[in-house]
Amino acid sequence: MISFRDFEHAGWSDNSVAQSYHQHLGHVTVGCILDLLDAARFKRDDRVLDVACGAGYVAAAAHDRGAEAVGVDLSASQVRLAEQTYPSIRFIEGDAEALPFADGEFAAVLNAFGLPHISNADKAAAEAHRVLKPGGRFAYASWCVASACIGFSMVYDAVRAHGSLDVGLPPGPIFFGYGDPDYAREMLGRAGFSEVSVKEVPLVWRAADPDAVIEGISRGTARAAAVFNRQSPNNLVKIKQHMRDRISQFRENGAYAVPSPAVVVAGRKPG
Ligand SMILES: C[S@@+](CC[C@H](N)C(=O)[O-])C[C@H]1O[C@@H](n2cnc3c(N)ncnc32)[C@H](O)[C@@H]1O
Question: Would you say 258 and 122 are in contact if contact means Cβ atoms under 8 Å apart?
């Protein structure tokens, strides 16, 4: 069976997945950028690394605060999209588990919604620690636990109700695990970080139509899309209806606002 890393690499290397994520999910994840940047506490002219940068939203926001920002992502398609979106920022291909940078190069390392896509998050945290200067901070954002993060958990609920989660995917990390404050503190502690803080950010997935949320999941993600798209046609009809019914509960001012809270976790490299 293909490894989880190669599965994720293949998924995010598809240009249409990168574009759909940008269209449907980019406007949701950017909602935690201010908290992420504040938690990292870097200053003007500091070097800041955005890991699993996707289209580069976080690197661009750090650049706007005066940092010398660099983005890194496993997917060449995402790196191309980031370069097109933010031409004045440097983006490169690279793996969060083996960052292509020397020890102590950065004042801050940021990671927005990347950890559930990385096979060994402990290694990614250790790499963030390695490339940080003493006193530098690692800050990450990740979805809250499943019971709170309806935007994503509803696809798994719908599949459990009308299909099967057993669709031959390689084993990977628990999608919602890094949003558990206790786990987050332990993980950053294991990587050598101190002064760990955890803050919940009440993100909302806003859409004009329930099918836009379904399209975001089925076309703009790797693992959730595979779970969804590997169902039988009959079950898929029921799964989509289950999701439409769920999303309809969050109608607000003629549109839909699906709760999708995240946590921002940060820790300091001692020194
Ligand atoms: C959910 S997107 C996050 C994009 C962006 N940071 C945001 O906030 O919206 C996850 C990203 O992780 C990248 N990724 C997956 N595995 C990776 C790895 N091992 N190293 C670096 N990036 C990885 C994917 O290519 C994808 O761009």
Answer: no
Q: What is the mean pLDDT of the chain?
A: 97
Count of all residues that appear for the chain in the document: 271
How far apart CA 23 and CA 156 sit, in angstroms, is 22
Say yes or no: CB of residue 127 within 6 Å of ligand 1.
no
In the chain, what are the domains?
4-268 (3.40.50.150)
Q: What is the DSSP string of 2-52?
A: --HHHHHHHHHHSHHHHHHHHHHTHHHHGGGHHHHHHHHT--TT-EEEEET
| Ligand 1 within 6 A of CB of 75 | yes
- Tell me the pLDDT tens digit for each residue of 69-78: 999 999 999 9
71 CB within 6 A, ligand 1: no
Q: What is the DSSP letter of 171?
A: P
**pTM of the predicted model as reported, rounded to 2 decimal places:** 0.97
261 Cα–ligand 1 center, Å: 18
